[in-house]
Write a structure and sequence with these properties.
single chain, alpha+beta, 4-stranded antiparallel sheet, 14% strand, transmembrane helix, hydrolase activity, YdjM-like
C-alpha cells in the first residue's frame, strides 16, 4: 500500500493495543514504525538500474523482520523514555514495535505487486491482488478511528472500540477484495466457456484503482493474450482486446539473460513480449497493471535489442506507457465502470 496508509495502519495498531499503556505516543510511534519498512525505497538512488526491483519489498518486508527488529527498537525507545523520567512498560514498547512492523508486509501482501515475505531465504513474491495500492475506503476508515483517538484521548473505551472496529472492518475489506478477484475470474471463465476455446486458458484478475470492484482480466494461451475489464458489482460481458504473440522472433534466448530474468521474476512471470522488426527490438511489458489506451498492455516494461541468435545485445531501458493525468474525470470514469 501507499506510505501514508501504512503509517495510518501503524497508528491504528498503536491506538487499539497500546494507547492505554503509552498514551498518544503510541499513535505517533506506531505511524513512524509502520512506515519504516519502506525505507528500502532508498535503493532507487543506487547506480544499479534494477536495485528497486530487487530490494524494495525485500528483507524489510519479510515476516521475521518485525519479530527480530521490534524488540531492539522497543528496548531503545523504552530506555530513551526511562532517561527522561518516564516509567513505561517495556513489553508495551516491544509489542508496539513488533506489530507495527509486522502489519506492514501483511498489508502489502494484498496488493497486486505483493512482497517477499520469506526474504532473504526465498525471493518468491507473494501477492493476492485484493485491493488497489491506493484505496480510499481502506485508508479513510482507519484514519477516522485514529482521529477519534487524537481528539478524545481520555475517552479510552470510545477510542479502543472505534480502533478495534476499524481494524476489524478493514481486515474484512481485504478479504472482500480477495473474494472480488475470485468472482471476477469465475465470471471470466464462464464467459470463455461460451466462446471459441477448446480448453480454458490461463485466467488472472488484477485490481485497478481506488476501489475493489473493477477488475482487470488477463487471459493467456499459447498464441495470444486477451485483456478486458469487468465490474463484479454490475457484471457485463467482457470486451476483449487481443494481442497476438510474435511468431518471427529468431529465439527467446534473451529470457535467459540475467537482467531480463530479474524483470520477468518481478512480474511473477506475468509479462508479454512484443517484437519490432526494425533492429530486432524487444519490449517486455508487465501485464498486471494497465488501463485502456497506450497502457492497456501494461503500465511499464523494458526494451532492448537482440541479435540473430536471440541474445540481448543492447542495455536494458525502462519504458513507461502513459495513462494521462489522474484527475477528477479519470476517477469518476473508474467509479462509473465499477458501479454502473
Amino acid at each position: 500500500m501507499d506510505l501514508v496508509t501504512q503509517g495510518i495502519l501503524g497508528a491504528s495498531v498503536g491506538q487499539v493495543g497500546f494507547q492505554k499503556s503509552l498514551g498518544r505516543r503510541a499513535l505517533g510511534w506506531g505511524a513512524a514504525i509502520g512506515m519504516l519498512p519502506d525505507l528500502d525505497v532508498l535503493v532507487r538512488f543506487s547506480s544499479n538500474p534494477f536495485a528497486e526491483i530487487l530490494y524494495h519489498r525485500g528483507v524489510t518486508h519479510s515476516l521475521w523482520f518485525g519479530p527480530v527488529l521490534g524488540p531492539v527498537l522497543g528496548y531503545l525507545v523504552w530506555r530513551w523514555y526511562q532517561a527522561k523520567g518516564k516509567d513505561d512498560s517495556l513489553s508495551a514498547w516491544v509489542g508496539l514495535m513488533i506489530w507495527a512492523l509486522l502489519t506492514h508486509p501483511l498489508l502489502d501482501l494484498f496488493t497486486v505487486y505483493g512482497t517477499q515475505l520469506l526474504a532473504p531465504f526465498s525471493n518468491h513474491r507473494f501477492a493476492l491482488s485484493a485491493i488497489p495500492i491506493i484505496d480510499p475506503v481502506y485508508s479513510l476508515t482507519l484514519l477516522a478511528s485514529v482521529l477519534v483517538g487524537l481528539f478524545f484521548p481520555l475517552r479510552r473505551l470510545l477510542v479502543t472500540t472505534c480502533s478495534a472496529l476499524a481494524l476489524i472492518l478493514t481486515t474484512g475489506y481485504l478479504f472482500l477484495g480477495l473474494a472480488q478477484n475470485e468472482k471476477a475470474e469465475d465470471l471470466c471463465r464462464s464467459q470463455l466457456a461460451t466462446e471459441s476455446y477448446s480448453s480454458i486458458p490461463s485466467v488472472k484478475a488484477y485490481t485497478t484503482m481506488f476501489q475493489i470492484f473493477l477488475r482487470r482480466l488477463v487471459v493467456e494461451d499459447n498464441h495470444s493474450l486477451r485483456i478486458g475489464f469487468l465490474s463484479t458489482w454490475a457484471p457485463k460481458t467482457i470486451e476483449w482486446t487481443t494481442f497476438e504473440k510474435p511468431k518471427d522472433i529468431p529465439s527467446y534466448n534473451f529470457l535467459k539473460d540475467p537482467d531480463v530474468a530479474i524483470f520477468t521474476w518481478f512480474t511473477s512471470q506475468r509479462y508479454f513480449v512484443t517484437y519490432g522488426p526494425t533492429n530486432r527490438q524487444i519490449t517486455i511489458t508487465d501485464n498486471r497493471f494497465g488501463f485502456p489506451g497506450p497502457s492497456l498492455l501494461g503500465l511499464w516494461g523494458v526494451e532492448f535489442e537482440i541479435n540473430e541468435k536471440g541474445d540481448r545485445v543492447t542495455p536494458i531501458a525502462k519504458v513507461e506507457f502513459p495513462i494521462g493525468s489522474v484527475g477528477l474525470a479519470t476517477i469518476l470514469e473508474i467509479f462509473e465502470k465499477a458501479f454502473f
